[in-house]
């Protein structure tokens, strides 16, 4: 089935040029609005549907500067599952594509608008429906902000671990759609590890409930985890039952600096082989150290080649022992400085250097944040490779990453007004992905494929896997209405 | 496509009645053997294909007494992925169904033979291909016995947690296909939590490699976890990359007995709400206690209504504190006896009572082992419900279970030669599933759907989920060749 896109494309085309119009956009859109916009308004009410380009444009993009974005023909803000069903029924009846999105913190363009499509913004469905300490779970709507969930369960002594950097504004629905990670992953895993059950509205408007409230369960296929990480291409998540953990203990923190990446890599490798499980193990390279020191005047060692920050939240003596063992590994690897603290406030300060790495790099220019995960034994090789790319492409590249799980974020700093730098920056972005694959890694550790890395997914997974992806996409969304062009090329 | 089954059905039909034949089976099978058997023999060699009914019958069943089983038309024992590809190509060319299986320890009939089908036995593909301490993973073939993998990684100080009761003879391929659990789940999760990547031969013989060697990765759909737990209905797993953990510390063990199930339930609920994470938390009811005491003469309290066994492997002082906190919860709930030990040998002895529960129940008659997971807050209600079913059906039902994760195994003991008892036993089996669903649970926590619970899956997941299951099955196995009639009804 070929979606009937022509009228919507026209809307998108006009809306994509704010300020260039010959007539007020509101009028233009009203004139062009087709039956399906009226149907949406009838179902969701006038406040649930927007076609004013000033409004729709604000929902056109996530944070992925490299990714293309169209303009939504309409933006809908459902208030409940019934609204989502109504939207999908209208969309499938008229063959209009739908782009689901949360807050738009994504870094791969997964929620970027598609010309002529409906952008479905889930942020109004933001209720924490239940927190059950007895079953150690929460039931939430997709628009709940990650931090709001963390706060909602903290009162019960509980903890929702996945903590992407944008945790104070990204939504759980977005986290589910991209299978988000964060700083916690080295010990606590990623979003999918906390998904017990989902409610999903399918392309045809049917409501699927899958998964469970129980800790274990093997009845049928693991559909919940198929939807997690599928970036809105298979269905729209409208509710999630999430496992929680006991609140962690106060952390003990370590910072160490090194003269070479090889030393840093040795520490990570020995953390793995000695069986230590820190609750956080982050790395910054010299570029990041200097940028952060410039920004925070934190008296960091500006000549250090790499800085490790680690924590243990095992509690009391166990945490002290973990961090002392980490300190010993750092010393054995030849660390220039090793500092530990049991004071959580000082720990927060030390961690602030890591958390400020990206804002600090942004002082150096526009940033392109890449996202590669490599086997943990290859971290030193990856850091060295990024240094080589920076030299070859004559660009500043700061590497910050989750050393404990091998997920690195090389960040290219450049001047976007310089065409030559742009070309080199984009080339360096690809060089980094190439390097990751060559080291046995993946082109995305936690940001997703979105529209940015569709061709890279094809390279990484190969023809057979791509065929299986396509077969599953076609089975669940035969008309190709859900987030077309994301993860997979737009269907033929 | 309708598989060309007639000749194979005939073979199965004959072979299903050993001793009833009018002619020697070997001759009959040879006479009936069709072109595809010759093609299999040409591909796998004469030692890779068996049609002798004495041989094929031995591969006809797993351990699920209630589940129906046909007789394989042929049994193949591939030695490598190329052999599996060859089998699937022959099978798809001729429309012959294929039942993949491991050691046959399953409890739901998932690997039971289908008349006229090829049973593909994966036990010869039993190599541990790699153990990487630096990346904390292992790469294995599916025929590796669970215990062999555990032993293979122990030398590197590593640990593969999933530990089904049959761990000393079940295979990893079977564990993957059913997403096995075990005693470890309360702390360490289930099989799918350890799957990084898979090699899978699809129905048409294509080889899919999916997943990764990295800790994190979100490139594309989570296909690996779609195959895990799909019980051989979507593809044949030929290799797995599995995450490992650091070896656990020596356990500290606790045993406690209670006069009421309510007290036991209270302890479990408080373990959850207080945030304790024991590495093992098992429950046995009075029927099990008495059966074990009869078998082991272990001087157990035969009047106790329930017995809890718990361990912490957190190590040293942390483990002592965990177990003391558990002991305190037991005392507060009114335990009759609380005993703890730091001596691993004594801990093993205490755990032996739990491990011997099923063999002990088998002394009371033929056993039907059920497998229900309920939310942890409903364990006491579930135990009481099972008592009620035992009274109503006038049967002995012993309940043993993984209290820490709510996965219970009520075990019905009966005399199969008594037709009336058989009827009541099968009815009680269903009553228990009904009870589990009524308490918000699932009809299978870790044994799977197999052929035994196909109708129960339909009841549990409902029409929309079933439709999604069917769409995925059809997308990956359009001819319905892989393990037909398992998980889902045989395709229309």
TrEMBL record, chains A, B:
Residues 1-23 are annotated as: Disordered. Residues 68-247 form the FAD-binding PCMH-type domain. The keyword Manganese does not apply. Keywords: FAD, Flavoprotein, Oxidoreductase. Pfam families: FAD-oxidase_C, FAD_binding_4. Belongs to the FAD-binding oxidoreductase/transferase type 4 family. This is Glycolate oxidase.
